[in-house]
Each structure stands twice: as C-alpha cells, then as structure tokens.
Recover the amino acids of this structure.
C-alpha cells in the first residue's frame, strides 16, 4: 500500500523486494527447510510460517496497483490539499478502500496454500504423524489404487471439494463486496 501511495524510490525498493520473494520456489524452499529442521521441531508451525512468508507477494502486487490508482482519485487529492498527514491518508482513506481487495485475495489464495501443504505431505516432508494430512493420505493411497481406488478417491475428493469451496467462496465474496463487478456479468 505504501509503495503504491508514495511511489518513487520506495516503490522501486518494495517492488524489487517483492520480486525477490516471488523468485523463490515455495515448494523447493519448503522441502529444503524440512530437510534441515530436526524431527522434534513443530513441523506444522514451520510450514505455516514458510507458506505465510512466501505467500504474500501476489496480493502485494495487486494492492500496490490499487493504491496507485487510489492516490490519483479526487478524495485523496482533497485530503492532501487540506493538509492531512500521510498516515491519516493511508489509514483513513486508502486502507478502507483496499480492505475488500485484501479479503477477496486472501480467500482466493487459501486453496493454493492448502495444495502446498498437501503436496509437501504427499512428498513426505510435510506435517508429521499423528497430525492428519490429505497429502499423506493420498500418498498412502497411491500404493493401493490398483487394488481399491476408493482409498485414493476419498482424500483426493475431500481436497478437491475444500479447494473448490474456497474458490467459490472467494468468487462470491468478490461479487458481494464489489457490486459493480456483478452488474457487468
């Protein structure tokens, strides 16, 4: 938000930092971290932290572009002309206009995070038992698929339904929050 509002050198620095984070392959990085951490460490917590630390750049790019669009709007210019501080403009003017975007992009990104955890658990570097994981269930069921495909169908179907539900929820939330978008369809 601040990069889009202030622009200039700060925008360049923040954008390059975002590009660096986007350059990391999340899956490869998480596999490497999982290999380094001891087996007694809380692997689920480490996975959540890594997914969170590497999962924000796509949302940040959208927020930056929205903030760049907002900074040229009349109400922002009027606040600046009336002598409002940058903090006031950011918190009271821009942030309320960006909350809908933040909420929608967060709900739409959740299926990708669930899929990343399932992929790591499928590869055997995810959460450790007894913590349940659909990825580990799918990995275990692969060996039984020729004998009984139902072992693979249920965890795979559950993973599919949850990611589909979050995608539909995010899409519906976007339509509900931005009524102009719903009219154009």
């Amino acid at each position: 938000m601040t990069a889009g509002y202030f622009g200039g050198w700060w925008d360049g620095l923040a954008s390059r930092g975002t590009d660096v984070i986007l350059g990391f392959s999340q899956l490869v990085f998480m596999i490497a971290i999982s290999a380094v951490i001891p087996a007694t460490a809380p692997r689920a917590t480490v996975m959540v932290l890594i997914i969170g630390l590497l999962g924000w750049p796509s949302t940040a790019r959208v927020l930056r572009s929205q903030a760049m669009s907002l900074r040229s709007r009349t109400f922002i210019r009027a606040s600046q002309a009336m002598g409002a501080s940058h903090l006031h403009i950011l918190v009271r003017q821009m942030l309320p206009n960006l909350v809908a975007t933040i909420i929608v992009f967060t709900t739409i990104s959740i299926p990708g995070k669930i899929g990343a955890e399932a992929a790591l658990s499928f590869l055997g570097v995810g959460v450790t038992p007894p913590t349940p994981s659909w990825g580990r269930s799918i990995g275990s069921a692969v060996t039984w698929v020729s004998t009984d495909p139902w072992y693979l169908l249920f965890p795979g179907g559950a993973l599919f339904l949850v990611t589909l539900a979050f995608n539909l929820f995010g899409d519906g939330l976007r339509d509900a929050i931005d009524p102009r978008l719903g009219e154009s369809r």
Notes: The radius of gyration is 21 Å. The first helix runs from residue 2 to 6.
